[in-house]
Amino acid sequence: MAGIDDITDEILKEAKERAEAFLTEAKKKAAAEEDAARKEAGALKKAAADQAEKDARDISMRAGSSAGLERRKAVLVAKQEIIDGIIKRAYEKLDTQDDASYFGMIEKLLRKSLRKENGEICFSAKDLKRMPAGFEEKIRTIAADGGGSLTLCKEAAAIDNGFILRYGGIEENCSLPAIFAERRDELQDKVHAVLW
Question: For a Cys-Cys bond, which of 44, 130, 143, 172 suits 165, CB 3.0-4.6 Å?
Answer without folding.
Answer: 172
